[in-house]
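Weekly modeling sync, notes
Attendees: AB, CL, MP (scribe)

Item 1: holo prediction request
CL wants a bound-state model with nickel (II) ion before deciding which constructs to order. AB pointed out that an apo prediction alone won't tell us much about the pocket. Agreed to run with the ligand included and paste results into these notes for async review.

Input as submitted:
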Amino acid sequence: MKITYLGHAALAIEVGDTHIIVDPFISPNELAKDIDINALKADYVLITHAHQDHIVDVEAIVKNTGAKIVSNYEIVTHYGNLGFEGHPMNHGGSWQFDFGRVTYTNAIHTSSFPDGSYGGQPGGFILETAEGNLYIAGDTALTMDMKLIPMQCKIDLAVLPIGDNFTMGFESAIIASDFIECNKVLGYHYDTFGYIVIDHDEAQSAFTNKDKDLTLLAIGEALTI
Ligand code: NI
Ligand code: MN
C-alpha cells in the first residue's frame, strides 16, 4: 500500500491497482500548489466529514475520474443529489470493496457543509487490505472509542491529526497511538493555516521519546506499508 500526502488531510492511496483519494483539499492550499488535481487517479473518493478543508476538490476529481464517493449517508446523499455515485455508510459499519474492507469509525468533531447544511456526523476510516491495515482518524479529538479499534483489527499505520486547535494535537496523538496499539503514525492536518502550525522537531521528538515513530511527509511525498 502506497500513501502519498497531498497536503492538509488529503491522501492518495494505492492498493493493488486501485486508487483512492481521501479528503481532497488541494486547489486552495498554497502549500500544495505543485499537486495537479487533474493528474490524480481515483476509483474511490473517501470523505471523513463535510468541512470545506476536506471536500473542496471532490466534485472536480469525481468529474475527472468517475470515482465513487464513500462517506457517511448524509454526505453521499448530498453528492448523489448532484448526480455523483456513492456508497453510504455510518459509524461502526463495514463494507467489502474490491480493494479491501472499509469501516467508518467514530470521530469527535463537527461536519457541516460550507453553506451550513447538515453533513451528518464526522468519522474516520479503517482500510483492511491484502497490503496492510490503515486507520485514517479524520478530524477528531482523542477519544476512548479508539480503544475499540485494536479489539477488532491490527493497524499497521495510523494517520492522525496533530495540528491541535481544530483537532487533537501531537501530545494527544501519542496517547491515541497507545489506544490504537500502533506505534507507527503518519501525521496530518497541520501547518495549513495559522491556527495549526506546529514545530516538526518538537512533535517528532515527543514521539521518539515514547519509542514511537511520527512520519511527516513533504507534500507529494509517499510512504509504503
Ligand atoms: Ni473538520
Ligand atoms: Mn479539518
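Recorded for review: Residues 9, 51, 53-54, 139, 166, 189 surround manganese (II) ion (ligand 2) (CB under 6 Å).
Action items: CL to compare against the apo run; MP to circulate these notes.
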